[in-house]
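S.,

Sequence below, as promised.
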Amino acid sequence: MRCKNCGSTFEKRYPNQMGAFRFCLDSDECTSAFWDAVKEDRIKKAKREKIKKRKELETVQDLLKKAQAIFNQYIRLRDKDKKCISCDSKLKGKFDAGHYVSSGSCKALTFDENNVHGQCVHCNQHKHGNLISYREGLIKRLGIDTVEELEKMRHKTVKYTREELRELITEYKQKIKYHS
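The prediction came back faster than expected:
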């Protein structure tokens, strides 16, 4: 085994003299480098523990907001070259990820990709979703069967767990990476 500090070959004398702690301990310099590595490792472990605790403290509401933001980012990326689902105008600059069935009224469809499409700010915010035109646009894009299925699911309830939301966040981060 070679010392990370001085490069000399040595035999392992202690169980922790491997990996990140590969130091010969034959000189004050190598011993000092060893203890610096131990200290750095402890700091990294403490940071990991702090992050782990912070994640455990995240509420479902916090994770829901995070998941919604990442999901909406994915929808905007997916639909960037399409037209507004409601008015058929070109989506340019800032546009919304508009829900056909409102996420406030139906959490089961909040993260359903068939329920959310690129929508111009005018239709989504100023025309409150422009739902009649949205439905017509959905029928053109996805077909009447899919639209009717969304409408049937309108009254379905769902409660997300922290773990489910973390999985959604991970899934949509991967999809964003793939589409970028």
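The chain has two domains: 1-57, 60-179.

Coffee later?
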